[in-house]
Amino acid sequence: MFQRILVANRGEIALRIFRACREMGIETVAVCSAADRGADYLKAANESICIGPAAANQSYLVIKNIIAAAEVGNVQAIHPGYGFLSENEHFAEVCRECKIEFIGPSVDAMSKLGDKVSAKELAKQAQVNLVPGSDGLIKSEEEALVIAEKIGYPVLIKATAGGGGKGMRVARNDISLKAGLKSAAMEAEKAFNNAGVYLEKYVENPRHVEVQIIADLHGEVVHLWERDCSSQRRHQKLIEESPAPNLPQSVREDICKAAVRLIQTANYTNAGTVEFIVDKNNQFYFIEVNARIQVEHPVTEMVTGIDLIQQQIKVASGEPLPWKQRNIPCHGSAIEVRINAEDPDLDFRPSPGKITKLRVPGGHGVRWDSHIHEGYVVGPYYDSMIGKLIVHKPSRPEAIACMKRCLDEFVVDGIKTTIPLLKRILNHTAFVEGKMDTTFIEQQLLAK
Amino acid sequence: MFQRILVANRGEIALRIFRACREMGIETVAVCSAADRGADYLKAANESICIGPAAANQSYLVIKNIIAAAEVGNVQAIHPGYGFLSENEHFAEVCRECKIEFIGPSVDAMSKLGDKVSAKELAKQAQVNLVPGSDGLIKSEEEALVIAEKIGYPVLIKATAGGGGKGMRVARNDISLKAGLKSAAMEAEKAFNNAGVYLEKYVENPRHVEVQIIADLHGEVVHLWERDCSSQRRHQKLIEESPAPNLPQSVREDICKAAVRLIQTANYTNAGTVEFIVDKNNQFYFIEVNARIQVEHPVTEMVTGIDLIQQQIKVASGEPLPWKQRNIPCHGSAIEVRINAEDPDLDFRPSPGKITKLRVPGGHGVRWDSHIHEGYVVGPYYDSMIGKLIVHKPSRPEAIACMKRCLDEFVVDGIKTTIPLLKRILNHTAFVEGKMDTTFIEQQLLAK
Amino acid sequence: MADSPKTGDAPFDLEKLQQLVEMMEKHGLSEVHLKRGDEQWRLRRGAREVLHAIPQQPVYHAPQQFAAAPAAVQSMAPAASQSAAADPNAGGLTIKSPTIGTFYSAPAPTDPAFVSVGSVVTPETVVCSIEQMKVFNQIQAGVSGTITAILVKSGDAVEYDTPLFRYQS
Amino acid sequence: MADSPKTGDAPFDLEKLQQLVEMMEKHGLSEVHLKRGDEQWRLRRGAREVLHAIPQQPVYHAPQQFAAAPAAVQSMAPAASQSAAADPNAGGLTIKSPTIGTFYSAPAPTDPAFVSVGSVVTPETVVCSIEQMKVFNQIQAGVSGTITAILVKSGDAVEYDTPLFRYQS
Q1: Whether residue C163 sits in one domain with residue C112
Q2: Is residue D6 predicted with pLDDT exceeding 50?
């Protein structure tokens, strides 16, 4: 086991890792930018090293500064947290070249899963469903009709050079497919100077369901069940929960097994998340693997009772997983909300400033993961997330009731936060009934 | 189910009950003394009524003021919390006479268990072990020797009119028993003008183990396992945990079953705690029943996942218990520490004052139940407990490690607290090995 | 909150009890609550009580052991107290409720009010009655002066410290 | 931290890459990191870098968008900055480390030091080298003046902003 670890991150996830290490008897070295220097949460580390100015690209993102701090700090391993360098293969490689363990997967697994084409190839090998579509560009109208017949309407016509919705059409029958092919190709030709288009099944109002995985260095892979993260705004998750509501037990098991197959096929190690979209018929399709710990890992910790950060460290140090798949429970229902320093009235623009008053809820079933405190100054330099509130109760209705009373108790003065939006989501019928998809916040809740 | 409840208490337990009610959709009415008026925690109630000046005997202890508030506040039931009027039979009686349900046991059960003689009688009926001894005063030396032979040495000679250790002797053999009888009787005669003495088995260095019970109005009684509360100073509990460490599974089950038998025999309803002492050979003896919710109820909530306050309210409203004994789990290990505003350097004298800085630990496995905040003024009027920190982890060593890192993170400036003492206990061999008894803090840890 | 195991068994001393009851009668005590170790005696006599209203005057708060902390000061409604101290003409002096309950301005609905605006009161003048658990407690003014305003309506619920009357001394 | 599903597939444009590499060479860029959607380009050139030390002078902090919040000010070590501003004679002006690493006062153990007390420096004068990952970065003074004190020993670890030299301008 490591005796001393550097945490290449800041804020709540850095504190989360300091705490996990302290409980394991492992010393920690913090790195901080000049903006974070002297912050309270750094006291939870054994040592703190300033690695550069406030801007992340001059501090938290500078590999050589982090490695220099690891050398000066005399550590054996680096935990990257999430964001920043956590999914940077080059960083993982440099760490290991410098004989400092990178607490994460192998560089090979990262690059295979990081690349879209090879990830799809792995999924096929592992017999994990991908969104069906044409195996490349559409050559003729006839071919498109055959494929559409095979994968079933609605289908999505996408420009191969596309972006920003340009050259994209939804077709719900043969006629609109024929028309759509022409107009999409024309638009793509104009916009990208490339008329190539391909077909994909159009998954309407999908749910976002992801599976937490952990794998050791000895070939053992287990899943820690799934999370539903459909409550999103502009692809940013706002609320996550486990288990996913209204997902039949057989589908839960299938999706978890599919994730394990993919991870085994990729020879992936350490913690990771396999993301899927799920359609109205509970068909699920692989999207991507997040090769790191996720922001929303606490909901999984609550229902399984497993400390994922500690387990990451144990696996990285070579320890075998201490349980078999059948020993991993899923008790009750856990919900996490992200509290962001954003102004809902100003299109969720970051709202930095000093927190002049803070009342954090507590009590039965409540967990608070955050580095902030009364008097803390939320700077303009980094992510706007200032804390995660997690509740765990025997059932989903009880978890929702608990989260609602927590948000009612919450007081954050001096900055604007997403708390009012979170309250609205928790009261929205789609959420209460567990029937949310990735579009409901923008298309129903926030639509004027 | 009740729609509106008055909480006849203050501070953390009042907040605990407001929160439980809010999650159940029940409105709450708070009562407060003039000293607590305007306190932040009262905002968690729907209404707040000032019932008198700061002194508890002019506010929280005045039955007619509480009943008047319940009438003005238009509630259907009163939750008494712990302390104050919670074990006052007369209060329970008055509530019910006024057609306001008292959330607690029947007056009959309270008085039967509140009286020492009838409680012992019930224990005998229920075949629950009492500390063995003479069935009344010792009439002769010969009788004493026979009894000592029967119950086994060491025995305790106690003056019937005794108090403060006067007229009390420990005898470890026949000779010291004969000598002790004489000197104890003489001392008692002098001190109390009453030479009567009786014998009891002397339980050396006992552990304090108690069983959480809940019973509905339909005859169903279940236990929610046991708590070890041996870490005491002057009979004040400092640390509580569940399950009790180093208690063989068969003893755990026996002690829990004994508690259920007693509760059934007493026709007791709602939540209660049956207290035992346990000797070195894991023999357990009934001491008393606490006919109310306990300060330390959260450790039971953590290992069972059951919200005891909500369950109290449901039972009081007539709902049957939703589970059978076999469905009540005991997952992992939970530890609670009481944070008291006391000065360990001044013989634990209360340390009132303004909290100028507060950093409460959080994260995985951590629960915080408290009404305090930065800027809160701890008054000199009430109990010195300002909060309860509870951790829940898969194993006891992990729970201890988590609690230690929490106490290391904890910052309370402006007043003195018991945190330094708690840290010492958590590092003490007896505690770490789970071999603490009710004497170890005073006799080992605090002994000069 | 002390979860201490009870120790010792003391029989009740009925002689002492008799003495105590006599003492209560003689000195007009309505409630006695004695506690020592795990022995508790609780005795109540009668039901009707006479309470004194709390006159709200600019008072000098004598230093207490805990004088520095606001909690000690909080036991007087701070806003009212401060405005009275700062500007006696604005709020004026008030008589405040000594308890929680329902305020009645007269002994019975058809009776005349205990006091009205202009009434001159002495400390012993009954100014209202406050009902608690069907018991009507007669409230004495506690001050001398002239009532200038009645601040609550008959039948209103009042808390401890609710201003009931404004008066001039 | 954005857990957004990746969208779209763009092949690498080698022509653009070539342009970029040339641009790096021409302008002496050592690192380029481009990101857009889920496409990322990361290019590094060479290893040896020249860094400029951060002169610690009493500076006027121009108002920024976030000027009111202390965080913006924190990016200068506040204690040093304040003492320098309040009493220039006490702390004096300092040259601070522009990065984290190991400080070396000379190019090699047997070589003479880059500068010593009394050395006159211009902004381009190399004052020390700071090692990161076996790479020795030459640090330029960034200011003009006379070195009055050397505040760290050769071989010491330094952080970003650690004061290295005191100087007079």
Answers
A1: yes
A2: no
In a shared domain, residues C137 and C97: yes
Report pLDDT digits (tens) over B142-194: 999 999 999 999 999 988 876 667 778 999 999 999 999 999 999 988 888 88
Number of domains in chain D: 2
Residues of D in contact with A381 (CB under 8 A): 71
Q: How many residues does chain A have?
A: 448
Q: Which residues of B are catalytic?
A: 292
- Residue C168 CA to residue C145 CA, distance in Å, equals 5
What digits encode the pLDDT tens for the residues A250-266?
999 999 999 999 999 99
- Torsion sign over Cα B327, B330, B332, B338: positive
Please give the pLDDT value at position A90.
96
Is residue D48 very low, low, confident or very high in pLDDT (cuts 50, 70, 90)? very low
Query: What is the structure's pLDDT at A383?
Result: 94
**B chain contacts of residue A398, beta-carbon cutoff 8 Å:** 23
Q: Three-state SS for A79? A: strand
User: So what's the pLDDT on residue B167?
Assistant: 79
| Interface contact flag, C76 B34, Cβ < 8 Å | yes
Q: Which of A132-141, A308-317, B311-320, D137-146 shows the lowest mean pLDDT across its residues? A: A132-141
Residue D66 in domain = no
Residue D57 has pLDDT above 80, yes or no: no
Chain A residue with CA closest to B12: the answer is: A363
Q: Give the gap in angstroms from C-alpha A394 to the nearest C-alpha of chain B.
A: 7
Query: Chain A residues with CB inside 8 Å of D135's CB?
Result: 64
Tell whether the model's pLDDT for residue B342 goes beyond 60.
Answer: yes
The token duo for A331 is 């008790």
Domain of C149: which CATH number? 2.40.50.100
Taking 3-state DSSP, the helix, strand and coil percentages for chain A, each rounded to the nearest 5, stand at 35, 25, 35
Dihedral sign, Cα of residue B398, residue A300, residue A75, residue A371: negative
Judged against a pLDDT cut of 70, whether residue C164 lies above it is answered with yes
Check CB contact of A367 with chain B, cutoff 8 Å. Answer: yes
pLDDT, one tens digit per residue, over B238-254 is 999 999 999 999 999 99
pTM, whole model, 2 decimals? 0.85
Both C36 and C81 in a single domain?
Answer: no
Smallest Cβ distance to B367: which of A23, A332, A362? Answer: A362
Query: Which domain covers residue D89, as residue numbers?
Result: 72-168
Picking from A383, A427, A208, A215, the residue whose alpha carbon sits closest to that of residue A295 is A383
Contact D77/A at CB under 8 A: yes
In this structure, the answer to whether residues C77 and C157 fall within a common structural domain is yes
Please give the ipTM for the structure prediction: 0.79
- CB under 8 Å to C1, separation ≥6 — which residues? B82, B83, B295, B383, B385
- In this structure, the answer to whether residues C78 and C37 fall within a common structural domain is no
Q: Cβ–Cβ of A398/B23 closer than 8 Å?
A: yes
* A99, A377, A388, A442, best to mutate vs chain D, most D CBs in 10 Å: A377
Cis, bond preceding D63 (omega within 30 deg of 0): no
Which residues of A are annotated as catalytic? Answer: 292
pLDDT tens figures, A65-111:
999 999 999 999 999 999 999 999 999 999 999 999 999 999 999 99
Q: Is residue C112 part of a domain?
A: yes
Q: B83 vs C1: CB contact, 8 Å cut-off?
A: yes
% residues pLDDT > 70 (chain D): 49
Residue B219 exposed, middle or buried by CB count within 10 Å (0-12, 13-18, 19+): exposed
The answer to whether residues C35 and C85 belong to one domain is no
- For CA atoms A403, A406, A412, A413, the dihedral sign is positive
